[in-house]
Amino acid sequence: MTGKRRALIVVIVAAALVAVAAVAYAGRFLGDAGATGDEYRLESPIPPSGAATGTGGPGASPAMTDSSATSTSVPPEASAPATPAAPPVPRPGEDTTGVPAGVTLTAYTGPLRITKAGTVIDGKRIDGCLDVRARDVVIKRSVLTCGDIMIKIEQKTANLTIEDSDLDGAGTGFVAGYWNFTLTRVDAYDIQEGPRVGSNVIIQDSWFHGMRPAGSDDAHQDLMQTNGGSNSTIRGNVFDATSAVAGVSFNAAFQVGAEFEPLENVLVEKNWFNGGGYTVNIRDDPEISNVLFRDNVFGPRHGYGAVSRADAPGIIWEDSNVAESDGKPVW
Asked: What start and end residues bound the annotated signal peptide (predicted)?
């Protein structure tokens, strides 16, 4: 074989080898004619939940990591936990309590000492304090103005109902009551003290506010108070024992005790309480049993705390009694 022919064969063989290599290299990207394309699809940059990720960020290969390398991914900022909201409770006010809009009041000319059973007073402006001594008396859609004891129930069988009415204390009055009465959608204001809760009392959907100072440092004014009694329900009311006068504070929105007789079987639920030294001030009296507080919300105003002695014997205080500000239990 001549030298020229030998050189030509070498060139042909080299060219063939180059062609084969080129075809193989191209096949890595193009695949064969029968491929579906799935075999060559790029991996998603977002790994499946729980899949390992490398230091290069989500989707990077976990292989061949350098222990001295620092991750370039930036972790998301932690979100501040949301402030839990206090559970909604009814907030009776000027639109839902007192004399309904459109009622025309006329002067009440009947007796202030009521002795006739079944007496109904409707749509009246009552100037004076009531002394109820009969059963089944109803006062509705009326305004009672009294600067002393607004409602006296001398007999424990009186069974008085007051609804959709205003109780105006004229700056010096207090609601009183004591036994066997129901207050529904009542607006009580400009008072030194509110209702006294004895036995068989229902106070619901009402608004007690606008307390006035008694002018004595030892007055110990309470917006509502019980000194004993049984079978009463306090539900869905606003008790706002605050003053618009700077520097004036009151003893409690609800003073709870059993000084005069045992206190038992009382339900206090879904109210909004505010103000006082302790908003709910509970005495450590021995004859208290089955007094349940639940689902009440406490406003921001108090001198010492929302409640005192919530763990006193006979008091059932649930964690559902919470602060309006953060929804957390107040005890």
From this structure: 1-26
The answer to whether residue 169 is domain-embedded is yes
Residue that the structure tokens 């042909």 belong to? 12
74 within some domain: no
Does any domain span residue 55? no
d(CA 67, CA 95): 69
- Provide the domain count of the chain: 2
Here the CATH number for the domain that contains residue 315 is: 2.160.20.10
pTM for the model: 0.74
22 and 122, same domain (yes or no)? no
* Cβ neighbours, 10 Å, residue 38: 6
272, 305 in Cβ contact below 8 A? no
Tell me which residue has tokens 């109904």: 120
Indicate whether 10 and 123 sit together in one domain: no
Q: Where are the alpha helices (DSSP H) in 221-290?
A: none
Would you give per-residue pLDDT tens digits along the chain (331 residues)?
555 555 544 445 444 444 434 433 334 333 443 433 333 233 333 234 333 333 333 333 333 333 333 333 444 444 545 556 777 788 999 999 999 999 999 999 999 999 999 999 999 999 999 999 999 999 999 999 999 999 999 767 789 999 999 999 999 999 988 899 999 999 999 999 999 999 999 999 999 999 999 877 677 899 999 999 999 999 999 999 998 776 778 999 999 999 999 999 999 999 999 999 999 999 999 999 999 999 999 999 999 999 999 999 999 999 999 999 999 999 9
Same domain, 25 and 113: no
Residue 278, exposed/middle/buried by CB under 10 A (0-12, 13-18, 19+)?
buried
Q: Looking at the structure, do residues 36 and 115 belong to the same domain, yes or no?
A: no
